[in-house]
Amino acid sequence: MAQLPNCPVCNSAYTYEDRGQFVCPECGHEWVESTEEEVGLVVKDANGNLLQDGDSVTVIKDLKVKGASGPLKQGTKVKNIRLVEGDHNIDCKIEGFGPMSLKSEFVKKN
What we know:
SH3 type barrels, three-stranded antiparallel sheet, YjdM_N
């Protein structure tokens, strides 16, 4: 019997294969184990342009920010972004707001 990989999220050894992908019964994470070299994190902006660490982007719509007195306005320029895994896949610092995480679907590449 082939050795199945541990879950990349919770490191559980109880993973199983289902229809070409691996499933972790403990945390519910599903993934495909690639036999090719990993491509890395792929993040695209609202227009489908590929984003990279260090890029500058512009916010394309007003965004409500929890704990802030006002929204992040459309047209705000963000410099030197950092890409991360997750729902909010852009980490950055915005003047007047401080450190923030943004979704790539609400920005466009400059």
